[in-house]
Design a protein that fits this description.
Blueprint lengths: L1 H7 L11 H18 L9 H16 L4 E7 L5 H9 L17 E4 L3 H11 L6 E3 L15 E5 L8 H11 L4 E6 L7 H7 L10 E5 L10 H14 L7 E3 L9 H13 L2 H17 L14 H15 L1 H20 L2 H8 L4 H4 L11 H4 L11 H19 L4 H12 L5 H10 L10 H32 L9 E2 L2 E2 H72 L3
Length: 560
């Protein structure tokens, strides 16, 4: 048997060393990734990463001088006997009644104080902890100093609590020794539910075919070869495979040598955590793409959004009101003074909307009100705005993974409820260019008043002449211009000239009003574009920035 075991023993792999600082840097990169995606991705997809960061930080802070090794196996595989043989003491109960091991037992090589905090974290009860260090042993056990060996419950136990305990501990230990026996080494449960799941932890996995003494010497190589085939199918190629028997120390010599080498290297914990990081990074890889994300929506999509925002904000209606208000105010300032009074009785179009510049001379504190009377958007305008926001999300997130497309869409819609008030404030606070009267209004208005006074002088002169004649007094000797008396010329000339100036001014007013409308529309469009940037585009860019940084953080967490 010794010769057979010696020939079939495989050296435990220890050529790939894990640098502790590099591992800590990778864990920190995953932590950054989680911080960056917080609020953008579903928590259900990040549970494994959060668990790893917390568990790895705790494991590294507790002890790097101890190596936690678990013996895991099915009922009757003899792992408790193997546990006792390695400890050279009867610590874990062995019997024919199944399951025998109902709780986890721990054996610590070296002072128990050094591993007590680690065992507290693992969850091994104090009464099930044993110390393997005695003066009688001399230096026989010194090679395993720092080893914490666990005897786990049977993973195929009929009691569900045993299976849950095994699953919990398998996520905490540094190295797992899978114990199988010749009768059940090909059992589907151990391969599909356990061994296959450890393919990323080949560096901290070891398989032993226990109770090898029950096989005829000629059958042992065949069984080991078949077990190796199954392990290769489980993506565990290269994992050490040993044949053991717990009935004699020579039967566990290869396993003990592998444990001594593991304890001496102090690499098992780092390799286990590195494998966990590899698994988490692989699981998160689907959450980030290979291509660099775009900086934001393209210009065409932004223009479409601004048009939709302008429609929802009532920019066309306000621009039309600016044109009408300009014509209304210009007519009141440059029109014929005789008919100006009735113009003032007509409401100012901007005053009706409670907008800035509602009328010349208004108090700015009263005109810059928080709410306007701009008509509410129609159903078509609201629909157009919704489609524009959707276009922003789809155009920006088209090249992103599905979860990030959802995050971009959510960000684009996140502040949609605040848009109506924000647009209303933007329109109310926009300078429409109607506060100051143009200089030419004053010049034309002054000319109209001069012509009106001229007509009034002529009218008064004529009235005085009629009054003198009616009283029988000598008539006035009115000067003439040609054959037309001067008073008559003043009256008719003033009236006709005023009408002529008003007629000539009207097309100029219409042209200036259209220009005022264009300027106001540009300013309003710029104001609502700022709202779109703040309430739609900025949240989208935040998501894109988080995605780019998270992608870089995950790349840093990948093993080089």
């Amino acid at each position: 048997m010794n010769n057979i075991v010696g020939r079939m023993r495989e050296a435990f792999r220890g050529d790939q060393r894990v640098d502790a600082d590099d591992l800590v840097a990778r864990l920190e990169a995953i932590r950054r990734f989680l911080d960056l995606v917080d609020g953008h991705l579903p928590d259900t997809q990040l549970v494994a990463a959060h668990t790893l960061v917390e568990r790895a930080g705790t494991r590294l802070s507790l002890s790097r001088d101890h190596t936690v090794v678990a013996l895991a196996g099915a009922t009757g595989s003899g792992k408790s006997s193997l546990f006792n043989a390695l400890a050279r003491l009867e610590l874990s109960p062995v019997g024919v009644r199944r399951p025998t091991t109902g709780v986890t037992h721990a054996c610590v090589w070296g002072p128990l104080d050094g591993g007590s905090r680690l065992l507290d974290w693992i969850g091994v009860l104090p009464r099930h902890r044993f110390v393997r260090e005695s003066a009688l042993d001399g230096d026989d056990e010194s090679a395993l100093h720092g080893l914490i060996l666990l005897d786990l419950p049977d993973f195929d136990s009929v009691q569900r609590t045993h299976r849950l305990e095994v699953d919990r501990l398998l996520g905490l230990v540094d190295l797992v020794i899978w114990v199988v026996d010749p009768q059940k080494y090909a059992d589907r449960v151990i391969h599909s539910s356990y061994l296959r799941e450890f393919h990323r932890h080949r560096d901290v996995t070891l398989v032993v075919l226990n109770q090898a003494d029950r096989l005829p010497p000629a059958e042992l190589p065949r069984v080991l070869a078949d077990l190796r085939r199954l392990l290769d199918a489980d993506q565990l190629a290269g994992v050490p495979l040993l044949a053991t028997t717990a009935t004699e120390q020579a039967g566990i010599a290869g396993l003990r040598e592998a444990l001594e080498r593991t304890v001496t290297e102090r690499q098992a914990a780092l390799r286990r955590l590195a494998g966990d990081v590899d698994g988490v990074v692989a699981g998160l890889a689907d959450l980030v793409g290979r291509d660099q994300p775009s900086a934001g929506p393209d210009a065409a999509v932004v223009r479409e959004l601004n048009r939709a925002l302008a429609g929802a904000a009532g920019v066309p209606a306000v621009a039309e009101a600016v044109e009408l208000a300009y014509r209304h105010r210009a007519g009141a300032a440059t029109g014929w003074p005789v008919v100006r009074g009735w113009r003032r009785l007509r409401p100012d179009p901007l005053r009706r909307l409670h907008l800035a510049g509602a009328a010349a001379g208004d108090d700015p504190a009263e005109s810059l009100v928080a709410a306007t009377s701009v008509p509410d958007p129609t159903a078509a305008q609201r629909s157009a705005l919704g489609l524009a926001i959707r276009s922003v999300a789809e155009g920006t997130g088209a090249d992103l993974p599905a979860v990030w497309q959802t995050a971009v869409a959510a960000a684009a819609r996140s502040r949609r409820g605040d848009l109506p008030d924000a647009l209303d404030r933007a329109v109310a606070g926009t300078d429409l260019g109607m506060e100051r009267r143009p200089v030419w209004w004053r010049l034309v208005g002054g000319l109209q008043w001069l012509l009106t006074l001229t007509a009034l002088v002529g009218l008064g002169w004529l009235a005085l002449g009629y009054a003198l004649r009616a009283l029988g007094l000598p008539a006035l000797d009115n000067p003439t211009v040609g054959v037309v008396p001067l008073p008559t010329l003043l009256l008719l000339g003033g009236l006709l000239a005023g009408l002529l100036v008003a007629a000539l001014t009207r097309p100029v007013v219409r042209l200036a009003a259209r220009r005022a409308r264009g300027r106001a529309e540009q300013r309003l469009t710029a104001a609502v574009a700022t709202v779109g940037e703040t309430y739609v585009l900025a949240p989208v860019r935040v998501v894109l920035g988080s995605y780019a940084k998270a992608r870089e953080a995950l790349r840093s967490a990948t093993r080089g």
